[in-house]
Structures are given as structure tokens and as C-alpha cells.
Amino acid sequence: MPRLNREMLERAKSTIALYPQKRSALLPLLHLAQEQDGWLTPDGMEHIGELLDLEPAEVLGTAAFYTMFKREPTGKHLISICTNLACMLAGAYELLEHAESRLGIKSGGTTADGAFSLEEAECLAHCDQAPCLQVNYRYFDRVGNNEFDALVADLEAGRRQSDVPPHGTLSRIKRTAPAPVVPTPAGDAKPEPVAAPAPEDPRAPSAGVRPKKRAR
Amino acid sequence: MTVTMPAPILTGRLREHGDSHTLERYLATGGYATLRKAVTSMTPEQVHEEVKAANLFGRGGFIMPAGAKWGLLRDAFPRYVVVNGDEGEPCTFKDHLLAERDPHQLIEGVLLTAYAVGAELAFVYLRGEFALGLERVQAAVDEAYAHGAAGSGIFGSKTQIDLVVHPGAGAYICGDETALLESLEGKKGFPRLKPPNYPAVIGLYGAPTVVNNLETLSNVPWIVENGGEKFAALGGEGSTGTRLVCVAGPVRNPGTFEIELHKTSFRDLIFDPSLGGGLADGRDLRFFIPGGSSSPWFGPQHLDIPYSKVGADTAVGVLPDGGGTMLGSGSVVAVDDSACPVRIAWRLTKFYAHESCGQCTPCREGGSWLEKAMRRIETGAGLADDVKTIMDVCRGIAPRLAWPPSQTTICPLGPSIPMPIVSAIQMFPEDFERHVEEGRCPYVGSVPA
């Protein structure tokens, strides 16, 4: 079971440096782990916990909340078919049924060779192109049964590598801008809070939650 | 019938140029000149005053004026600006258009906002499924730094504003601003209790935080450049400026249209040849969903209502306890007479049942009960008193079935669940009866088992 490899670890560290508090990097780091392995392995999540000072259970508990994080092995191509309102009216359930029979799996399943996973998705915000789907979070518009078959044939033959990169919604992102300078309280010019929030509130700002200044 | 459109504020560049997302095109069309002017010759207060004068209401759904929202910030530093780009409301697809096709306009708006409120760090939270949007916005952030528009010493001034692009991971609830902040802090997207957790008071990391919708902030460069009064001169009856409206469903020409608020009606949006273009295949409009899946439905008798806050608020709607509807997220879905309203209400209920965060019982349990009961009716297994049961559960979630609904939960997701169901029951009771009596859906197509 893999931990983050050297390249991913570098990307993880530069991602952590973007935030005033480490834990904010949790979602992006989970995306990186998923990009590496195609899903979230227990070891990958444990490694992320070490990087962010979180218990593995906290990492898992958070990851489980989000639909995009897969906690079981997922196919090389994740096909997400939107069945929400506009796509449903344009025949998305018929398309999903066709996809299930073409791939020989039910929605939520993965083909035996690990090439495809199929899922029913909530609105993908592409409703003027209904019915739409995503493969590894890349859009395909107005997909009918024939278009679906052609797409699957292309993916099987490796002909779509330029528009469908492997797993990872961040796989083509590499920030070149410098990391932020974390804001610091400006002591003299700007006054401290005058109207304090409800005193019993645990989220009230205190020295403990104020972002620490970090060297560039 | 033709609608006269003012010069677009948000979509001019992307309609005219295929490379509207590049820095080169942005600069060639006057980009970043406003930011340069602001940081070198305007005070933050002056920038804020222009946005206040514009009376720019929030384009995410809550319709609070942005200038007023910024004015509520607790007097403490650091402060943060957070862009809500977690566009997940069914049939809303405008924000990812702006993110993919004009990311610099957004970034200039964010930088101006941060300058106005004294924030030195801003986050752009984009829905995780928007892979291309994330790439385009990150590339634009990098270009903005290289151009001297972001980071330390913006355009030679002492202003410092950093930008971070943050991906979500598939959770509709993170479109609620406090859930979004939890998510940005690396936690489950549980909405926070308000009060006390208004982001302006206790926001990101407990600090005062501005959270605004992506489209809202994309308007800011135009407002600061042309003046708030000029923006406020567009529209009418307190709904100022233009808005992106997503027209979806079986219309001839689905898409995102920039329209002048209040000067355009729902009829224009659905039927005007330059907008929705009318129903496809010569079918008749049966009803439409005017503001995202949570809004109460409208019928053909509501078509001439102007598209504005006042229009939606004062309409005589269909809910049993009164009230109109809302403009919500800027989506209009037209539905023709070939589609089953029970099926549509079921599908939206299924969406809410899936997306409930699970914190509050009425939403968590009520949503899945309603989904089961609606599915039962749609698949032909409905019982004679199912509609009564459904209405009881709906009243349990939103005791006043009116717009706006009364609240039993931490965030508005719960009380949104009954809206499509009750709309369907009020408008099309005979459809529910036929499903139960005939033991099947009388329309073509049925819910998969």
C-alpha cells in the first residue's frame, strides 16, 4: 500500500506552504494521493495525516464526506454521468442504462480489468450540453449512445490522452507564483477587535488560532 | 419580441474572443488598469464606496448587497477574502463559464475586493469537478503574479495581496458560505450556526472574512472602473446591473445569458429568439423553475414577471402558505408537457437526500423519507394517502410552506427540500392521483429501480 512518492511529497509540501494553517491543505493533498493511486489508500491517508498532524481517522472521516474521494480501487477512467434535472430530461438515465450494458458493470462498479469505473453524478454544471458526462473530471457534451460507444472505444485505444489525463483534478496544475506571505496582525495602525463576538464561542479568535508568521 | 441588451459587463470579452482566458487578451482589452488605478490613486474606502453605490446584490443566491456585506466586517486583522466558486445548484452553470473563460476578470475583482477591505490573503474555492476551471484560474493567478498585479508591492504600491486557488471535492453543501469555510479549513463541510458564525465576524480561522460568489466579484472591476452609479443605473427596482442567467431544460437554445435585471421577464428568458428561443419541438411550456432547484415553481401565468428581486418576491406563488419565489442561483429551467412533474420533483428530492450533510435531523431523515415516498409514487407503488404523508413530512421540515420557508435546520438546505415537492403537489395534483390510480407513471420514461 503506497505512501506519497517523492514527487507527490514535494507537491504536498509546497501545497501546505500556501495556507496559514496546515489542515487547510487536507483536500488538495487527498486529491494528490488520489492522483497517484487512483483512489485513497489507507497508507496514503495515514501519510497525509503525518504531514498535517492529523490522526488517520480524522483524515478518513473528512475524506468520507466528499463524493470525489474514492475509498476503493477505481478504474483508470472514471466515467461520471450526470442524471440531474436537465440531463435527466435529455435522456441521462437511458444513457446510464446504455453505459451499464456497454461496460458490463452497474453504476458504482469497476470493470474487471480496472479500465473503467462508472458512477451516477449529481449536477455537473454543464446543463446547456445535456446529457453530459465527465471522464476523470473532463467534460463531454451531448452524449448519446453512439457518442458514448465511440468515446469508450477511444479511451480503450488510448486515443484520448490529451483531453483526458489520468486521475487527479489537480494533475495539470503546478503553481509557479511564490507562496503567500501569511498576513500578520498590524499592531499600531489597526486596532484590535472592539466588539468581541459571543465570548463562549469556541471559534472566537485568540492567539491560538491566529496564523503564525512564516518565513518565505 | 426582442429584448434590448445593454453592453455586457461580464461576458463581452468571452463572447468576442476565443482566448479570453489569457493575460495577453485581458491586457489588450484594458485588464488590470482598474487595479493599477485603485492601488496607486484610490483609497480602499473609495473602492468600497463604488461597490456600495452599485448596490451589487450577491449572485450566489442569498442576494445580499456585496458592499453592505463588506461593511459588516469585524474591526480586526488579518482578514480574508474567499470566493465561493462551488457551483453545485442543479442547472446552474454560469460560474464555471467565468472561471474557465475569463479568470483574470475574477482575479482582478478579488484583488480589488481584498484591497477595499484590507485583506492580504484571498482564496478562490472552486468546485473540485471543475478541472479545467481550476487549471485556468491557477494559470491566471500565476500570470497575475508575474505581471506584478498580485503578491508583494502590487504595481509598485505598498499593497500586498496573495491568492490561493483551492479545490473542493464534491459536496453541494459547501456552497453554503460557512460550510465552505469549514471545507477550506480542511474539515467536513458542516454549515456553522449563525449567529454567531457570520463570516464577517467569525469566518476563516476565526477571522473576519468576506465570502462572495464568483460572479459577484467578477463585476467589481467594471464597477470600480465605470463607477457604482453607472452600474446602479442598469436594471430597476433595486435590482441593479446585469446578471448571468442559465436557461436549461428542453428549450431550443439552452445557455448562459447576460441580461439586464428587471428589464427582462421570464418570458423573454425562455422564449426570446436571442435567449432561450422557446421550447424545442414545438412543445408547450407547462411550468418553469425560476431560481435553482430550491425555488418554488412558477407556471405559465407567471411568465411576464420581471426578472428581479421585486418580481420574484411579490409574485403570487404556488405554496399553500403564500409568498413568491426567489431568483436564487440564476438558473431558469423550462419544462414542457412531455415531462413528468412527479419524476422531476423526485429527482430533485434525491439530490437533496444525497447532499444533506447530516447534521440536522429534519433534513437528514426527512430528505431520505421524502425521496423514498416520491420514488414509490413515481414507480407506480404509491399508496392512497402518500401525498398526505409527504405534506406532513414537508411541514415537519419547513413548518410554514411559504416563501421564504421557516427554518428548522442550521442551513437553508433542509427547508429547500419541500419546495419542488410541494410545488408539484400544488400545481399538478391530478398527476399524483394518476400515478397512484394507474399504478404507473403515465409519462414516457420511468425511474430506474
Largest sheet of chain B: 4 strands, parallel
Largest interface (CB < 8 Å)? A-B, 77 and 90 residues
Helix coverage percent of chain A: 25-40%
How much is the average pLDDT of chain B?
Answer: 96
CA radius of gyration of chain A is 22 Å
Residues in helix, % of chain B: 40-55%
Gross morphology of chain A is elongated
Principal-axis shape of chain B: globular
Q: Helices and strands of chain A: which structural class?
A: alpha+beta
Short description:
The complex is a heterodimer of chains A (216) and B (449). Chain A is an alpha+beta fold and 216 residues long. Chain A has helices spanning 6-16, 26-37, 42-52, 56-63, 85-89, 92-103, 145-156, and strands at 77-82, 116-121, 133-135, 138-140.
Description:
- The complex is a heterodimer of chains A (216) and B (449).
- Mean pLDDT of chain A is 89; it is low at 186-199 and 204-216.
- In chain A, strand 3 (133-135) and strand 4 form a beta hairpin.
- Chain A is of the alpha+beta class.
- Chain A is elongated, with a radius of gyration of 22 Å.
- In chain A, 33% of the residues lie in helices and 8% in strands.
- The two termini of chain A are 34 Å apart.
- Chain B is α/β, with parallel strands linked by helices and 449 residues long.
- Chain B is built from 20 helices and ten strands.
- Chain B has helices at residues 12-16, 23-28, 33-41, 44-54, 66-71, 95-101, 103-117, 131-146, 177-184, 214-218, 220-226, 228-232, 266-271, 309-314, 341-355, 361-378, 386-397, 413-416, 418-427, 429-438; strands at 80-85, 121-126, 162-167, 209-213, 235-236, 239-240, 242-248, 255-260, 285-289, 331-336.
- In chain B, the strands form three sheets. Chain B has a four-stranded parallel beta sheet, with helices on both faces.
- In chain B, strand 2 (121-126), helix 8 (131-146) and strand 3 (162-167) form a beta-alpha-beta unit.
- The radius of gyration of chain B is 22 Å and the shape is globular.
- The chains are: A alpha+beta (216), B alpha/beta (449).
- Chains A and B meet through helix 2, helix 5 and helix 6 of A and helix 8, strand 3, strand 7, strand 10 and helix 15 of B.
